[in-house]
């Protein structure tokens, strides 16, 4: 690397990079200055995920694994899950699992990826908490 200079103040050496555009900066002050103008997120063209779902029959043996619309809504509302899905690699992974002919095998592979077990755990905990409230006896 030729220069390790902060691209904002051009004075100090940079220590951090903007999570969106990877512009190097030295301090929070410089980062705030940088964020005064919206920066371009680095998303190469091939990263764009088409959301066309494959034609595949829903094969679920256990009906309680099918999520109700209220559960899906809870998942959609969960900030943690939405944050996790900002990760383009995770998006690709989920899409891959969803679109391949052998989802279980892909899921097994995905579980070895850093962060993925935590992500599924987040979804499961949302789903479980919903189930628990449903199962509470209404006396
Ligand atoms: Zn700086
Ligand atoms: Zn930036």
UniProtKB/TrEMBL annotation:
Keywords: Metal-binding, Zinc, Zinc-finger
CDD domains, A to Z: zf-HIT_ZNHIT2-3
GO terms (BP aspect): box C/D snoRNP assembly; maturation of LSU-rRNA from tricistronic rRNA transcript (SSU-rRNA, 5.8S rRNA, LSU-rRNA); snoRNA localization
Domain HIT-type: start-end pairs: 6-39
Domain of life: Eukaryota
Pfam families in the record: zf-HIT (PF04438)
Chain ranges passing through the membrane: none
GO cellular component, one term: nucleus
Entry-linked InterPro entries: BCD1, Znf_HIT
Record has Metal-binding as a keyword: yes
Molecular function GO terms recorded: zinc ion binding
Keyword Cell inner membrane set for record: no
Protein name (database record): HIT-type domain-containing protein
Organism: Dendrobium catenatum
Lineage: Eukaryota, Viridiplantae, Streptophyta, Embryophyta, Tracheophyta
């Amino acid at each position: 690397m030729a220069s390790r200079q902060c691209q904002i103040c051009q004075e100090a050496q940079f220590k951090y990079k903007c999570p969106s555009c990877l512009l190097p900066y030295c301090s929070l002050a410089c980062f705030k200055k940088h964020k005064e103008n919206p920066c371009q997120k680095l998303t190469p063209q091939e990263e764009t995920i088409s959301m066309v779902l494959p034609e595949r029959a829903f094969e679920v043996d256990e009906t309680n694994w099918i999520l109700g619309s209220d559960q899906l809504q809870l998942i959609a509302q969960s900030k943690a899950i939405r944050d996790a899905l900002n990760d383009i690699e995770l998006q690709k992974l989920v899409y891959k699992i969803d679109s391949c002919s052998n989802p279980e095998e892909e899921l097994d592979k995905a579980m070895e990826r850093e962060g993925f077990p935590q992500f599924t755990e987040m979804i499961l905990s949302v789903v479980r908490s919903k189930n628990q409230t449903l199962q509470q006896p209404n006396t």
